[in-house]
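Input/output pair, single chain:
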Amino acid sequence: MPARIGHIYRDDAFYADPSTGELKQKYFLVLAAPRRGDVVARLLTSRYANLRPENPPCFHGDPYPGYYLGVLGEPLGAKSWLDLRPLDDLDRWDFARHEESGRLHEIMALPAAQLRDAMECTAGADDTTRAQEQLIRDELAALPPTSATATIRR
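Output:
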């Protein structure tokens, strides 16, 4: 199944623990998934919560740029941020293969208004490449308007 924009996934083998070699999981949000090309995503984090602002939710400053998502619910029971530091795009073929093998799990979808804000914030982040920004903005433009944006446009 192709990656779904606005959905949070868990990768059960995202990285190896440097001290033990044990494979560790990470959560990420899909921000763009073009038919041809790689998947643009950003990791979720709850680390350094005392150093990350909640308001405004979009923060492009140092040392930890991020977008505050709040407490999303199980299995993400802690305050979570979208980490706006660089992340290589995910190969779409590997994504599909890992999902089929059970390594990747779709966890939940963000509400439309929050997704739009997170996409805008990520597109404008310093560590987002021009290509990633264009893909995110293209996907953003293709999203159906939320009631909040429909009201603003009138």
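Helices lie at 92-101, 112-123, 130-142, 147-153. The chain is about 25% helix and 30% strand.
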